[in-house]
Amino acid sequence: MPAGPAHAFTGDNHEDITRAALPWQPSTLTAMAGARDGAINANDRRPYFDVGPLHCDNADYLDPRNAPGYPRTRDEATTELLACVRTSVARFRSAVRAADGLVDADGTVRADQSDLSSPCTWEEKPGRAKCVLIEQLGRGWHQIEDFYSHSNWSDRSAPGPVGPANPPGLARTDVAPFLDIRRYSAMEDADWTREAREHIPADLATGCYPDFDSTGVKPADCDGRVSHRDLNKDTAASARSKTGDNFLRATAGATAEIRRQWNDFKAELLAAYPGHGRGAQMICALVHDDPAAVCR
Hints:
Blueprint: H1 11-21, H2 26-33, H3 74-99, H4 111-114, H5 129-150, H6 181-185, H7 189-197, H8 228-231, H9 246-272, H10 278-287, H11 291-294
């Protein structure tokens, strides 16, 4: 089904970010990154489009020094952000399991499970292991990319008073420490959420959007709150993008983050499947267009 009104990096921008981050061969990379049919954009189709944690929405907050009586607490905003992180942790775990189907017990690539001669469909259904794996990664990385667009992590505020329409910018250039998805995937959920909470800055916010939050409640509106409209950098024409180099900062942050996530996923496969070089063969099968011929 077609997506609703844009509230994420456009498909083209998700594609550019993902292509810049992943050294994959052309057909496989297109299956992941394609603006219209790539797995990285699958969350922008309903019903996924309407779920706030799948886009890191609704973690809005302003300190009383900037907005006395702001209608959400820091703890409520953090809870929404952690719900977003949780979706990526779950997808990471699923992707590691799906990789097992790419090769047999002695590390030989399974041609029938790594073939992309027919398109993958992102329908959360059993299928070729490579399609399932790409879907799990794409659905887990989408909201990570959105975080850099929808939050004030990397951007700067516009000149003038700070408030709901002009929240403070953190101007960070590092990848977010609370997006350590590989580490969290090996921990109990209660433990990693406790750890991640400690890394979330007091002034961090993502924009309010009228989609379903982590409690299953769809906000009626975002009046009086930091809104997605005012904070997003989904396109270079977005209001927040027009302050300095905010759009470039958001895309650079998202690209560096996906590069980290990819390197961490490779490391996890090598650690999880050491016997007969299976982890290395899984990586080879994932990134190559004809792995049965190449990965020997």
